[in-house]
């Protein structure tokens, strides 16, 4: 089932705030216990929510002042691709 743009934006409006700030548990709550996650910093990926939470704790410890904003939500067959951009809070 393809997610439409409105549903993708609605999900992102809840999901992106969890990417802002230093709250790895809140961020991990959006993922299933059997998730697989990868990004450019971990091209081999991590499997499972426990490993993902450990990764998020390290990531946020290095970047506690991230603020993420949505650029565009792109519907896909099994979800959506969220283009987003980080910036840092001013000191």
3D architecture notes:
The chain is α+β, with helices and mostly antiparallel strands and 91 residues long. 37% of the residues lie in helices and 34% in strands. It has two domains: 1-21 and 65-91, no CATH class; 24-63, no CATH class. The strands form two sheets. It has a two-stranded antiparallel sheet with strand order 1-2. A two-stranded antiparallel ribbon has the order 3-4. β1 and β2 (42-47) form a beta hairpin. The radius of gyration is 13 Å and the shape is globular. The protein starts with a helix and ends with a strand.
Mind sketching the topology for me?
Layout: H1 5-19, H2 24-28, E1 36-39, E2 42-47, H3 49-62, E3 66-76, E4 79-88
Antiparallel strand pairs: 1-2, 3-4
Could you name the key traits of this structure?
two-stranded antiparallel sheet, 37% helix, two-stranded antiparallel ribbon, 4 strands, 91 residues, globular, alpha+beta
Number of domains: 2
User: Given the structure, what is the number of helices?
Assistant: 3
Unreliable stretches (pLDDT < 50, length at least 5) are none
**Amount of beta strand:** 25-35%
Largest sheet data: 2 strands, antiparallel
**Helix/strand order, N-terminal first:** HHEEHEE
Rg from C-alpha positions?
A: 13 Å
Label the structural class: alpha+beta
Helix content: 25-40%
How many E-type strands?
4
What is the residue-averaged pLDDT?
85
Tell me, briefly, the overall form: globular
């Amino acid at each position: 089932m393809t997610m439409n743009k409105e549903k993708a934006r609605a999900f992102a409006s809840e999901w992106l705030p969890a990417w802002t700030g230093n709250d790895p548990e809140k961020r991990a709550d959006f993922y299933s216990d059997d998730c697989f996650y990868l990004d450019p910093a971990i091209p081999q990926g991590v499997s499972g929510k426990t490993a993902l939470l450990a990764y998020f704790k390290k990531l946020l410890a290095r970047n506690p002042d991230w603020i993420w904003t949505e650029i565009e939500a792109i519907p896909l067959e099994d979800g959506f691709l969220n283009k987003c951009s980080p910036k840092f809070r001013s000191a």
